[in-house]
Amino acid sequence: MSRLAWRIFVTIFLTLLATGLGAIAITSWYLEQRATRSAIELTAGAETAAEALATGGRAGLTDWARRQAADRDSLLIFLVVDEWGDELLERPIPRRGSPSEPNMSERISGATNGETLLGGSVVTLDLPSSMPILSGADGQRYLLMTLPRDGRRGVFGLPATRLSLLALALLLTAVASYWLAGSITRPIIDLKRTAEALSSGKLEARVTRASLQRRDELGELAYTFDQMAARLGAALQAKEQLLRDVSHELRSPLTRMRLAVALLRKRTDTPPELDRLELDIARLDELIEDILSISRLQSEPSSLHKESLDLRHLLERIATDARFEAKEKHCRIEWQMDDTPCILSLDPQWASAAIENVVRNAIRYTKAESAVSITLEQNAHEACLTVSDAGPGVPESQLAQIFEPFYRVERDRGRVSGGTGLGLAIAARVLGAHGGRIEARNLSAPATGLMIRMWWPKPQA
Fold first, then answer.
1. What superfamily does domain 305-457 belong to in CATH?
2. Residues 45, 68: contact at Cβ < 8 Å?
3. Which among 101, 117, 237, 362 has most CB atoms closer than 10 A?
4. Are 391 and 450 in contact (CB under 8 A)?
5. pTM (2 decimals)?
6. What is the rounded distance in angstroms from the CA atom of residue 251 to the CA atom of residue 263?
7. Could you tell me if 351 and 314 are in contact, meaning their C-beta atoms sit under 8 angstroms apart?
8. CA 383, 384, 386 angle in degrees (round to 5)?
């Protein structure tokens, strides 16, 4: 078996062993205590019975038997049998021993007087014996038989000793189960938290030392996962560094190309292909700027210049600018928000870029003669900005990937709609740098389209 299986087996086995040994110990102790107390009660009961016989005769002894039967705190039940074999309270007399054992009358008549009580001539008490014999002043003899009384009933009608054993078993089982469950689930929860941190972009996230130091399969899994996270982080950082280096290196030739185009435009015989060349240079320059922006947001999130501003004013400006672009696409902008100020701590430049990228993405994909909806809602902790379009939507399996750099939905790779695949990636990085989050989901039927929600945290007092 594996080490984890051995851990489970040993835990269960030791729990059962401890429960069994504990049950034996409690039972032995209980029986010993009960035997000692029964012996004391037998002696005390016989003496009080003899006293009742001496003072009240047969009637007094009968009253004593009746009082003793009603005493629920006693461990013993006393049966008083006369020389004719009748019990004074007419209770059934259990048969003891073998069939050849003498009956009650023979046992009483064959007994000899032992300890003398209350002056000797009145009552004698035959002790020690498991069935003492009382001798009255009138010469009549009575045999005291004892029966164990049922133990005190507790919860669910169980005797106290069984309740103790049940409590011990439950306690040991609960402790062992809690330890075993925690031992197995703690590293799994640790792996889950690390995976969530990695998926949210925290490439430095690693499993805890406690999980790595385990000497079983979960420890090996934690070590393998940690190595995978380290290699994944190194690969992503290398990719980002490569993009930054390439972007910086492309800046110089693009600058020279832009100067060359400017010089060519001074000539009178400028070829028509020069306009296309200038357009491609502008696109490359925009692409490089977007790549560097993502790099700065990921490597230096603290470089944001935040200030307190009302998000509604920012949205009004963005919506006004978006209406001009929407007219060219034959669509319209619909937005709604209440009159309550929405004061946030934002970097105005980056926040505007993030929201504009999402709105422009919605305008780009919405259907003609449809509307792009912008809605602002807020509570005490955050503001939620929702942008919805009436476009074709995104396959459910790709909703989380559209916020990755250069990711484009497969059917849109023809670049008919334009764009570089970095707009939503920049929006996601801006939200992350502000401590917020972004989410995309498709609208439910009968409506179609994509809805992107952005949560901006409010400053807490």
1. Histidine kinase-like ATPase, C-terminal domain (3.30.565.10)
2. yes
3. 362
4. yes
5. 0.51
6. 19
7. yes
8. 150
